[in-house]
Amino acid sequence: MNLQLLHQVTAFIWQEGDMLDHDDYDAWLALWDEKGTYIIPIDPNEEDFENTLNYAYDDAHMRTLRVQRLIGGESISTSPEPRTVRTLSRFRILAEEGDLVTVRCAQNVREFRKDVLKLYSADLVYTLQRAGDSFRIQRKLIRLINSDDALAGIGYIL
Q1: What distance in Å separates the CA atoms of residue 105 and residue 124, rounded to the nearest whole number?
Q2: Taking the model in full, what pTM does it have?
Q3: What average pLDDT score do residues 57-70 get?
Q4: Which residues are bridge partners to 111 per DSSP?
Q5: Is the pLDDT assigned to residue 155 strictly greater than 70?
Q6: Residue 80 and residue 69: Cα distance in Å, rounded?
C-alpha cells in the first residue's frame, strides 16, 4: 500500500469537501479537468451513465451552470441556500495507472435547510489525474445508497 499516495488523495478530497461546505465554488470548479464528469446515477448498479437517466451527469459547462443556480437564488431547490457538513472516510486506492489514480471513499452529508436536517450517504469513486504536486478531477461518481428511493430535491453539490 502506497501510504504517501493515500495521504495525498485523502487530503485533496478533504479539501474539495471543505470547499463545498464553505461555498468556495470558484476554487471547486478549478479542481476539475476541462473534460471531467460529475455523475450521480439513479440506478445504484448502473455503469452506462451516458445512456441512462441520472440525477446529474455534468461536464464543465453543466458544473458551472449548477454553481450559478446554487448561488443565484433563482432555483426553488436552493432557496434558502442549504448549509452542509460532510464527513469523508474509508479511503481506498483502487487503481494507479500512469498519472491517473482511482480512489473510493464513503461520504455522509448533513444538510440543513428550512428547519429540517437531512442525511445523505454515498460511496464516491474519484478518478484523479496528477497535476504537479496535486490532482485534477477527471471523474467524480456519487452512488447514493438510497438513489433508487424517492429523494427530495438535492439542491447542492454532493
Answers
A1: 5
A2: 0.91
A3: 91
A4: 84, 118
A5: no
A6: 12
Is residue 150 pLDDT above 80, yes or no? no
Q: How many CA atoms lie within 13 A of 122 on its CB side?
A: 23
Query: For residue 152, which phi and psi values (nearest 5 degrees)?
Result: -70, 165
Residue listed under C-alpha cell 490532482:
135
Q: Of all residues in the chain, what percent carry a pLDDT higher than 90?
A: 72
119-141: average pLDDT: 96
Q: Could you tell me the sign of the dihedral formed by the alpha carbons of 141, 130, 134, 93, in that order? A: positive
- C-beta neighbour count of 95 within 10 angstroms: 10
Residue 4 to residue 30: CA distance in whole angstroms: 24
Question: Is the pLDDT reported for residue 38 higher than 80?
Answer: yes
By the 8 A CB rule, do 103 and 128 touch?
yes
Long-range contacts of 40-49 (CB under 8 A, 24+ apart): 40/142, 40/144, 40/147, 40/154, 40/158, 41/141, 41/143, 41/147, 42/147, 42/148, 43/147, 43/148, 44/143, 44/144, 44/145, 44/147, 44/148, 49/141
pLDDT number for residue 154: 64
Grid cell, residue 2, equals: 502506497
